[in-house]
Amino acid sequence: MYATQMQAYRTVEKTTESGRDIEASALTQAAMRLKDCQNNWDAADRDTRLSEALRLNQMIWSIFQGELIKEDNLLPKQLKSDILSLSIFIDKKIIDALAYPAPEKLNIIININLNLAAGLRGRP
Question: Given a cut of 70, is residue 51 above it in pLDDT?
Fold first, then answer.
């Protein structure tokens, strides 16, 4: 019976790790798309690429919001609340950058995405 319980634990652990890796990868990719826009601010297609990058970020954070409010989410209540507050902050920054584009406005979104991705990967 112990072997069955250990196998169940390992299966859950692998699922959790891969889920965190997927989330970290999505955040990193979204940050890199914003960084690319920032580095090529004068490109002719900047507006399109910026809009796509910001909408990708918005979609990722909306998915996080949806997952955090589910009743079966196992994260501690305070952590869920903190991440939801952060997601509202990110939403405001995305809307501001869409309405009034400026390369420096992307820094905060990029930094939060990369820091959260590092945390999900277990690296400070």
Answer: yes
